[in-house]
Amino acid sequence: MFLGTYAPKLDDKGRLILPAKFWDELASGVVITRGQEHCLYVFSTREFESVHEKIRQAPVTSKQARDYLRLFLSGANQEQPDKQRRVTIPVGLREYAGLDRDLTVIGAGSRAEIWDTAAWNQYYAETEAGFANTSEEVIPGLF
């Protein structure tokens, strides 16, 4: 499970050192793809295969499902971390997420997310009050 918030830097070659706490789950391979809110999703290869299997079950007659599948999979990039736990983020994905040198990597349960730090700070500032003031059940059965 991916938990926590980390502040790594993107190097000049577009590489990111994965947080050490994520290493066990990601050592055998990662898939990086477009996420929502212009971040990047990072899945273990195993988890990505599970997500892909669920996506494949969407009806091909649904335009929304086709659109989601196209955007999600067309941006996907499979990587094998090197010995220093680095992965290369392709230029197209860096542009999509507006990544510069300063990054924020968060754990989001079954995946990690990579954010440009300024974008993460803005997102956090805009959504934290709503989170703190939630008065109805957002996730059934959680609270």
Task: Briefly summarize what is shown.
The chain is α+β, with helices and mostly antiparallel strands and 143 residues long. Helix content is 36%, strand content 22%.
How are the SSEs ordered, and which strands pair?
Blueprint (H helix, E strand, L loop, with lengths): L4 E2 L8 E3 L5 H4 L3 E5 L5 E5 H12 L6 H12 L2 E3 L6 E3 L2 H7 L5 E5 L4 E5 H16 L11
Structural overview:
The protein is α+β, with helices and mostly antiparallel strands and 143 residues long. The protein has one domain: Chemotaxis protein chec (3-Layer(aba) Sandwich), CATH 3.40.1550.20. It is 36% helix and 22% strand. The chain has five helices and eight strands, in the order ββαββααββαββα. The protein has helices spanning 23-26, 45-56, 63-74, 91-97, 117-132, and strands spanning 5-6, 15-17, 30-34, 40-44, 77-79, 86-88, 103-107, 112-116. The strands form two sheets. The chain has a six-stranded antiparallel β-sheet, sandwiched between helices. Strands 2-6 form a two-stranded antiparallel sheet. The longest helix has 16 residues, at 117-132. The mean pLDDT is 92.
CATH topology: Chemotaxis protein chec
**Full CATH superfamily name:** Transcriptional regulator MraZ domain
Biggest sheet architecture: 6 strands, antiparallel
State the CATH class.
Answer: Alpha Beta
H/E topology pattern: EEHEEHHEEHEEH
Estimated share of beta-strand residues = 15-25%
Q: How does the helix and strand content classify structurally?
A: alpha+beta
User: What's the mean pLDDT score?
Assistant: 92
What is the number of domains? 1
Strand order across the biggest sheet? Answer: 1-7-8-4-3-5
Q: What general outline do the C-alpha atoms trace?
A: globular
What is the name of the CATH architecture? 3-Layer(aba) Sandwich
What radius of gyration results from the CA coordinates?
Answer: 16 Å
Q: Can you give the helix content as a percent range?
A: 25-40%
